[in-house]
Amino acid sequence: MASQIVNLTVNGADKEFIARPPTTLLMALREALHLTAAKRGCAQGACGSCTVLLDGEPVVSCLVPVVTVDGAAVDTLEGRASEGELNDLQQAFVDGFATQCGFCTAGMIMSAEALLARSPDPSREEVLEAISGNVCRCTGYEPIVRAILDASARGRARTEEAATATGGEI
Amino acid sequence: MTSIDPDYFESERDSGSGFNVIGTSVRRSDARSHVTGQTEFFEDISPANLAYIAIHRSDRHHATINRVDVAEALAVPGVIRALTYRDIPENWYTVLRLIGVEPNDEPVLAEDRVLYRGEPIVAVVAESEDAARDAAAAVVVDYTDLPAVLDVEEALAPDAPIIKQSGTNHFVYEGHHARRVRLGDVEAGFAAADRVFEWDYRSAPIEHAPTETTGCIVIPQGNGRLQIRSNTQAAFFTLDNTALILDRQFTDLQVVGGTVGGGFGGKVDVIVEPIACVAAALTDRPVKYAYSREDEMQVSSTRAAERIYIKDGVMDDGRIVARQITLYVDAGAYSRHSPYGTTKAAAHMPGPYTIPNVHVDCHCVYTNRTPSSAMRGFGVTIGDFALEVADGPRRGRDRHGPVGAPAAQRVPGRRSEGTPEDRFRHCPDRGDPTGGDARRSGAARRVRVDVVVDSEGGTTMTLLRGRGYAAVNYPTGMNLGGDPSQALIHSTTTGGFVVSLSSVDLGQGLKTVVAQCAAETLGMPFESVIIDTADTDTGPHCMGTFASRGTHRVGNAVIMAAREARDVMLEVAAEELEVDAHDLETDGSGDILVTGAPEKRIHVSDVAMAAHFKQGKTISGRGMFLKQKSEPVPETGEMDPDSCQAHACTVADVEVDDETGVIEVIALHNTYEVGRALNPAMAMQQVEGGAWMGVSHALFETTEPYYPASREHGPVDFSQYLMPGPADTPAQTSVLLERPASNGPYGAKGIGEMTANAPIPAIANAVYDACGVRLTTMPFTPESVLRGLDARREAGLGE
Predict the structure, then answer these.
(1) Is B275 helix (H, G, I), strand (E, B) or coil?
(2) Which of B223, B323, B495, B592 has its CA 20 to 30 A from that of B204?
(3) Which residues contact B138 (CB under 8 A, 6 or more apart)?
(4) What is the distance between the alpha carbons of residues B704 and B190, in angstroms, rounded to a whole number?
(5) A11 contacts A76 by C-beta, under 8 angstroms
(6) By the CB < 8 Å criterion, does B32 face chain A?
(7) β-sheet bridge partners, residue A57
(8) Which residue intervals define the domain 2Fe-2S ferredoxin-type in the entry (chain A) (predicted)?
């Protein structure tokens, strides 16, 4: 099988690289682009450690042949902080002691980001469902659930603050 | 200093609430790098010219190897070479030889015989993972099958096939087949008892299932040295064993690690590093050997399956007057850490009780199964399950109504296993004799009744509801060997303090908590302490991170080193301020000030500059923890472990569906006596994360094959190896109790492992409370509940 040139927009930046057809999005990110936040926990789509956003939707990148998503936009954990400032989810994970070994953290945060993008005020059940594909062996999940709900509250508070500052027009 | 005087830390222990950093929930020092993706795990490095290893493994339980043919494997494009046992300089080893537990009974690569399915025979090195895998599959091995033994008790039968070259199927300890505990006269105790109960308990093997699989990358350094980038839990344990296997100088190796995606005991076995080192040395290229998820599930070591027979003599008032236990640990094909786990089991079997007559035999038995080894709470977890479940229904009063009676008729919170007050009868006070260890006392148990909160809500009341209770204790650290850990500390010229360690942070927060210890002892801000770990070139020796030892052992070493450094720091400051060093104090701000004259102060950065450029002094210190070695007396098990014991109680609320047998754990109420909570939020992380693992063990986890007769098709991934998901996790309330330990860093004890233990018997007792079914085999499957309900109906208890 001939190698192909693949173009992706990764965390807002255009990337071009050569990949063989069996190469997964995960291995392309890690080996071709040296973005190693997404982890290989099983390479079977069962642990969620490699979760990234593909055109805004959470996917287990270990099951996506990269040549099939040429031209797509990919978001990974590396692109979340802005100028050294953590985003709400990242800060909530730090403040809420929602990390232990850290191996599942990238996947958890990306799954949560997809949730908050489509549901800024999620119920607890929505949070549980959103991370149901992400395995954590350390925390017992509850600190992670709390952190995601906390991040949601932080985001809403900022939105309300902005609305107040602009007289209600956002 | 080579041993710890129990009073050495008295001043820290008794400082009470006058701490600056200790006892505060400072943010984890690694959290920011975790949430930004900057934490570097071993597989995140990508050395140029990397080669890959895949293994051809035995597909037989027990067989003679007649011939190994690697011709087809070598013909696979991209294959560099194939390694067999002939390439391993010292092929036979056992990891615990480092603390004197022998013989070397395991080959790195199998020679003329395989003892379990999955045993490595040939290691293929190739240019890509795919090529390595294809080539490993192309290796041809010709076998002659030998009789296999797959059951611990069958392995001890007189006509059992002997699988070990030592000529026995059990580990021999001091000439005995078993680790023993003997206290009082157990037969006299049974004779005096009002009632005698006998139960047996079983558990399945359990996989550690870390999210990051076991692995390493070995990089030749060009000077004859090999750098091992590994996710081992124990850097020097790995270095020492690997050097012995390679028959090379210890100085030829460097282990760099300290970032581990979950360990739980599974990354102490030194399994991948030796083969990767041999491959790297022979090819002179960087080599990666990482388990696939299937490898991790199928061939990595397990928590040992155990079988426990308990006979208790009980008085009508609830006192246990005699306890006899026979326990079999299924070590699988090789020793690994199982002999130590068996010793630990024996020491633990009396439980956290005062029982005057105890007789325990724990057998470490070899079978043709995947080797078991260390896992969180090993030697104790399954024992706690058996002990605490036995301690419940033993009281003999079956107060259950008919199966299917409306649960609303039940009294929520009823404890069929006896009230906590009943159990207090067994709580030893200081000095009471207990089997094996005279230092236990039941602080958490005594307080539990005051702090547990009754949970009345959260149930539809359409299911059978029950509440169960369990109490456990757990020793801190290894009780064989000296269990050493060392620390070095020095100040930078900018006023920071670098703590050099080789200790591994598994995610429990070791780096954060020992930085708190250093900052507190120095009197400096937490932010001024930099932890440099885990590199064997720069960090002093540490046994490793296992056995609930990290915070206690490393924390003690860090405090000692920080004290030395503080003495020099004050000496330099005294010279600068022209006062006596005894008149100086610190307030945690970074300043050193004169007692009674707080305006007269100097910042630590100025002190560091003065030491370096003016006074020619090094602000540094060395610290080490080494406990007195104590071996159990073979005949009685008596020993002085010189360790503290942490205590815990868990109350579980469950609902049982009597039509499906499904158990749902609604809530767990945990109380932990932790000595001192150096960082309460992180201690709580351990408690609640461990409790989740306990629920997972209790209800789901097993690596048993789906088809026991053919022993085919065990779980290979997370979709088959069941664990509770986010929505399956019970609500938890947790309380930390503090009773500073005499030899703990600021009084702390180790709690990392025990957190998974108490929920298991608590859940079993709650199921009994709900529906009268005694669960004696882990995991507690719906089928086992239904079988129990059927048995009750047949006995006329449920119609």
Answers:
(1) helix
(2) B323
(3) B72, B73, B75, B76
(4) 37
(5) yes
(6) yes
(7) A54
(8) 4-80
